[in-house]
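Predict the 3D structure for this chain.
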Amino acid sequence: MKDILFLDIECDQKGVPRDFGAVYGSKELHERSPTKLGEWMDSASILCGHNIITHDLPILEKLLDTSYSKKTVIDTLLWSPLIFSQNPYHSLVKGYKIVNEEDINNPLSDAKLTRTLLNQELNTLQSQGEEWKSILYLLLGKDVRFNGFFDLFEDKIANANTSEVLQLVRDKICNGVYLNELIALHPVELAYVLAVVRLNDSQSVIPKWVLNTFPKTLDVYKELRFSSCQEESCSYCSEQLNPKKALKQYFTYDTFKRFDSSRDISLQEETVNAGLHNDSFVAVFPTGGGKSLTFQLPALMRGDALGELTVVVSPLVSLMKDQVDNLKKRSINKAVSINGLLTPLERDEVMSQVESGFARLLYVSPETLRSPSVLRLLRTRLIRRFVIDEAV
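Done. Predicted structure below.
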């Protein structure tokens, strides 16, 4: 690997840097002072870290009173969701903690883990084919936050064109999207969206931190996957954004329930459409009228299209269990619940399904929302809406 310095900084709870670690060739550093690290940074051609652009570099520039703007920088955090989009993550897997539980944050160990992660990212992207690599180069090759990564490949990377991007996501996005405009105006955001869309894997989601760091990402995602063009010739919109087809796919019903034959569109279908498109709506259903379907179907459709999570809050554990069990009977396994009846192992499994993006519907009780672990879990997902079921 080229002349790369891998570095990491640990700060105390007040954000004050207190520990510095680095790996530079065969040399290692673990010190309380940044002085030696600064010398290594001056001589290195490439600086690499996990969240180095937002976290480490600003701190070091302030401490050392210098600028590293002319250095090539590689941030493994930014690249992880682009390459490992089936299992996006932003935290280093700190295996050394298993050996020494007291060694909570070791910057030298984290610098070594960053080196391993960079190698994994390079090898994985290489295995994903020249087409995807070329598309990423088209979108990110001129951005200083990303272009250093491409320098590590020995072979020259071809620049993709719009037709190759279209081929990558054919039938996975709306035909009415102005792709050239998105490439020109929002290339980074488009790259993160394409990383998920190209897989056509409903479990893959864009990590919440990406949506926070690049706020336009969600707008690009919606434009590609949920701004229906209403054209019959668009296979994606006609198949994936059609409530009646989704009703058949998920619930095996041919039509929505009707209570008033004089209505052109049934109340149930109208309520589903309102839920899909953010419209305000008040609907009153008779007992057994299919009220639950009016939030379940939009949750499943938007969840599969955009990776969103719908949280259903209910005080009745029996009701939560019945709804989840009824969905499973229809082979809908993307609804889960967290309640006091779960064993620790069952709770961990449910939380893993939510965090990974597998779950589209999460049923919880009001008191569960006070749990710090559940609140942390919800922060990892893009939440579409909270549904209050059986409100009193």
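The chain has a mean pLDDT of 91.
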